[in-house]
């Protein structure tokens, strides 16, 4: 029988390491809710048909809830060697085939190592949440869904509409690759230790016409210029692109417009002209 999560944390003396973005979820009501809502928004009852990848399992609260949804297999990728023994204890208790990788998720390629269909689930380490998301979005056609927890302000940037102050590079790339639903917000007291900020769980499902990694790379460059000077007119912030005013007019954007007035679709059209 598995000990409770708190007994596990105490037994291994697992003090949270700030440098690894560790804020643990030790309440199974919350981790179960993440999985329940993710399943329900995907119109499925369990993960029996999916190979699940969990990034940063830590002491394993969310991992236990994932295993409860009976995935075909579970692969966990955790940087902190202290958590590996905890994962081995979990593996000894489950019938689900489980692979444990002690390493950096930034260096791990989910599509190379895990059979399809695959989903990624994570209470993400906040310090690398955006780089990890952007990396997965470049291979989104090979992923069935992503259920991810972010700092609330990062989630707001990801889902931000055109014309809003949070709208930018991440919103554009995420919205050109996925349909994104917010599952719910979590207050700081849900975590041990409690961070200063709220968090939000988002579900990403790939769009049928999700843009390619090549498109993403182009849009990254254009949006870096456009939002690097977001108060400037596009003809100014994008002046390093040949005939930028003509190109903007060709897609129906005034050269005097500012970056936050341009929809993701128009950024895509522009990227195809440069
Ligand atoms: N899933 C656990 C939970 O919900 O309680 C822990 C979440 S904690 C916010 C983030 C976890 O990611 C930590 O366990 C941390 O050690 C791990 N981590 C941090 N950076 C990582 C990286 N680059 N690759 C893999 N794991 C990482």
Architecture overview:
Strand 5 (118-123), helix 6 and strand 6 (145-151) form a beta-alpha-beta unit. The chain is α/β, with parallel strands linked by helices. The strands form two sheets. Strands 4-3-2-5-6-9-7 form a seven-stranded mixed sheet. The protein is elongated, with a radius of gyration of 20 Å. The mean pLDDT is 96. Helix 2 (28-41) packs across helix 3 (61-68) and helix 8 crosses helix 12. It has twelve helices and nine strands. It has two domains: 5-206, 3-Layer(aba) Sandwich (Rossmann fold); 213-271, rRNA adenine dimethylase, C-terminal domain (Helicase, Ruva Protein, domain 3, Orthogonal Bundle), CATH 1.10.8.100. It has helices at 5-11, 28-41, 61-68, 84-93, 110-113, 129-137, 152-159, 169-177, 213-228, 234-237, 244-250, 264-273, and strands at 24-25, 51-55, 73-78, 98-102, 118-123, 145-151, 178-186, 191-192, 199-206. The structure holds S-adenosylmethionine. S-adenosylmethionine (SAM) is lined by residues 20-25, 55-59, 61-62, 77-80, 83, 104-106, 123, 125, 128.
């Amino acid at each position: 029988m598995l000990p409770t999560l708190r007994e596990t944390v105490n037994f291994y003396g697992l003090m949270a390491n700030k440098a690894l973005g560790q804020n643990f979820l030790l309440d199974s009501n919350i981790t179960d809710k993440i999985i329940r809502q993710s399943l329900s928004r995907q119109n499925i009852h369990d993960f029996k048909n999916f190979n699940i990848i969990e990034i940063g399992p830590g002491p394993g609260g969310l991992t236990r809830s994932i295993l409860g949804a009976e995935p075909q297999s579970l692969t966990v990728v955790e940087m902190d060697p202290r958590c590996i023994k905890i994962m081995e204890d979990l593996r000894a208790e489950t019938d689900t085939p489980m692979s444990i990788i002690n390493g950096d998720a930034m260096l791990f390629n989910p599509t190379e190592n895990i059979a399809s269909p695959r989903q990624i689930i994570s209470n993400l380490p906040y310090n690398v949440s955006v780089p990890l998301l952007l990396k997965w979005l470049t291979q989104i056609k090979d992923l069935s869904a992503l259920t991810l927890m972010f700092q609330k302000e990062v989630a707001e940037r990801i889902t931000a509409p055109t014309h809003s102050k949070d709208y930018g590079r991440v919103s554009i790339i995420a919205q050109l690759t996925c349909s994104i639903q917010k599952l719910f917000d979590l207050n700081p007291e849900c975590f041990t230790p409690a961070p200063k900020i709220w968090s939000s769980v988002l579900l990403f499902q790939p769009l049928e016409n999700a843009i390619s990694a090549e498109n993403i790379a182009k849009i990254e460059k254009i949006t870096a210029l456009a939002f690097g000077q977001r108060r400037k007119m596009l003809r100014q912030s994008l002046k390093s692109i040949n005939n930028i005013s003509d190109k903007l007019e060709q897609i129906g954007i005034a050269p005097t417009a500012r970056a936050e007035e341009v929809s993701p679709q128009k950024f895509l059209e522009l990227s195809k002209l440069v």
